[in-house]
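// run 5 | inverse folding | seed 20
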C-alpha cells in the first residue's frame, strides 16, 4: 500500500515548488546584501540566513501536510477552531499587535514577525470549501448554502481592511469569489451575491469614511499618483516604480549577471521583497524572468488540473482556492512592479523575502500535493483507499437530505 501511495504523488509538482524556493533563496541573498549592510548595519547574508531557515522549517511542515489526509480538515471541531480562531487572532492584532508600514498587521514573537492576514487566506479557503461540501444537497438554497461561507469571508475581509491591509483584503476577496463561482451554487445565487455585495459596500462605507485617515494615508495615495505619472514624480511618489523600470530596462535580454544589480545599491526600495522581480530582471535578464514565470504557471495549472481530477467537492474547491491564491498574488505583484497596476505591497510567491508568506505557501502546497496524491490514487486504484486516510477521531460529515 505504501508503495502505491508513493507512486501516486506528483513529483513534477513537488520539484517545481522546491526549485522556485531555491531560486528565491538565491535571489533574496543577491537583492538584500547591500540593504542588510547599509540600511540595517548587519551582515550581508542576514536576510539570506533568515529566509533559508524559514524555507527549511516550512519544508518540514510541507512534508507532514503532504502525507496528512486533507479530508481530516472536515472535522467539525477543527472547523469551529478555525472559525473562531481566525477572528480571534485578527482582532488580537488591535490589542497586542505591532504596526509596520502604517498597518497594525504583525505579531512579534521570540524575535520573529508573523502576519496573521497571510494565514487568513488559507483559513478562508479551507472553511469555505468545507461549508460548500457540507451544503451540497441544497446548493440552490441561498440562505442555507451561500450565506454562511459568504458571511465568514466578509468578516475576515473586514478585519483585514481595518488593519488596514488593502492588498491582502483584495486577494482574499478574489480567491473567495473563485471558490464561490466554482462551488456550483448557480447563476441566480451569484446574482444575489452581487446585489448583497453592493448593499454591504453601502453599509461599510461609513466605516471607510470614519477610518479614511488611517486607510487612505498619504503613503497609500502616493501609490496611485506614482502609478499614474511615475516619471513626472520621479523623485517623489513615482520613485519606486521608476527605479523598478530602470532595473528591468538595464537588464535587457541577457541580464547583467547574478549579483551585478545596480538598483539594489539603495536606489530600489524593498528590493528583496515587493520588487525582487525587478532585481531578477536586471541580473538574470529574460531567461531568469521566464524561468520563474514558467515555474509559477506550471504550479498554478497543476493546481487547477488537480481540482478537475479530484472526485469530491472539498478537495476540488481547496485546490481551486490555493491555485487562485497563487495566481492572484503573482499577478498583483508583477503588475505593481511593472507599472500595470498600483503598487500594493504584495510579495511574489516563493521568491520574495518573507517568513509568513513562505510558511503559508508551503502549508498550502502541502495540502495541494496531498489532494493530488489522493486524486491520483483513486484513479489508479479505484477499489482501494490509502491507509493514510484512516485518521483516528476524525468524524466526516454525513450528507443531509433536502428538507421540505
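// decoded
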Amino acid at each position: 500500500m505504501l508503495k502505491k501511495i508513493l507512486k501516486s504523488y506528483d513529483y513534477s509538482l513537488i520539484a517545481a515548488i522546491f526549485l522556485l524556493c531555491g531560486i528565491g533563496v538565491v535571489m533574496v541573498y543577491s537583492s538584500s546584501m547591500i540593504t542588510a549592510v547599509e540600511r540595517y548595519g548587519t551582515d550581508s547574508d542576514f536576510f539570506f540566513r533568515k529566509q533559508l531557515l524559514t524555507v527549511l522549517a516550512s519544508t518540514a511542515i510541507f512534508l507532514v501536510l503532504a502525507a496528512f489526509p486533507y479530508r481530516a480538515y472536515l472535522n467539525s471541531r477543527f472547523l469551529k477552531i478555525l472559525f473562531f480562531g481566525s477572528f480571534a487572532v485578527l482582532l488580537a492584532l488591535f490589542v497586542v499587535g505591532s504596526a509596520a508600514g502604517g498597518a497594525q498587521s504583525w505579531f512579534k514573537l521570540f524575535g520573529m514577525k508573523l502576519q496573521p492576514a497571510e494565514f487568513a487566506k488559507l483559513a478562508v479557503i479551507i472553511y469555505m470549501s468545507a461549508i460548500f461540501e457540507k451544503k451540497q444537497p441544497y446548493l440552490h438554497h441561498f440562505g442555507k448554502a451561500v450565506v454562511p461561507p459568504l458571511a465568514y469571508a466578509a468578516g475576515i475581509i473586514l478585519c483585514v481592511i481595518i488593519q488596514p491591509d488593502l492588498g491582502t483584503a483584495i486577494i482574499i476577496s478574489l480567491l473567495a469569489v473563485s471558490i464561490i463561482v466554482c462551488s456550483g451554487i448557480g447563476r441566480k445565487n451569484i446574482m444575489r451575491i452581487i446585489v448583497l455585495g453592493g448593499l454591504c459596500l453601502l453599509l461599510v462605507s461609513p466605516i471607510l469614511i470614519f477610518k479614511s485617515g488611517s486607510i487612505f494615508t498619504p503613503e497609500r495615495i502616493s501609490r496611485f499618483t506614482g502609478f499614474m505619472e511615475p516619471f513626472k514624480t520621479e523623485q517623489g511618489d513615482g520613485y519606486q516604480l521608476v527605479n523598478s523600470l530602470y532595473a528591468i530596462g538595464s537588464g535587457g535580454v541577457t541580464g547583467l549577471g547574478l549579483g551585478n544589480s545596480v538598483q539594489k545599491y539603495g536606489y530600489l526600495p524593498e528590493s528583496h521583497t515587493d520588487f525582487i522581480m525587478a532585481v531578477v530582471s536586471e541580473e538574470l535578464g529574460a531567461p531568469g524572468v521566464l524561468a520563474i514565470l514558467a515555474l509559477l504557471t506550471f504550479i498554478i495549472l497543476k493546481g487547477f488540473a488537480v481540482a478537475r481530477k479530484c472526485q469530491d467537492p472539498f478537495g476540488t474547491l481547496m485546490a481551486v482556492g490555493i491555485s487562485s491564491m497563487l495566481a492572484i498574488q503573482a499577478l498583483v505583484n508583477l503588475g505593481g512592479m511593472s507599472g500595470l497596476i498600483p503598487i500594493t505591497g504584495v510579495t511574489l510567491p516563493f521568491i520574495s523575502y518573507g517568513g509568513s508568506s513562505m510558511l503559508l505557501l508551503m502549508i498550502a502546497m502541502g495540502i495541494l500535493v496531498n489532494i493530488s496524491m489522493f486524486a491520483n490514487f483513486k484513479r489508479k486504484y479505484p477499489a482501494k483507499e490509502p491507509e493514510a486516510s484512516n485518521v483516528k477521531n476524525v468524524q466526516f460529515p454525513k450528507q443531509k437530505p433536502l428538507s421540505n
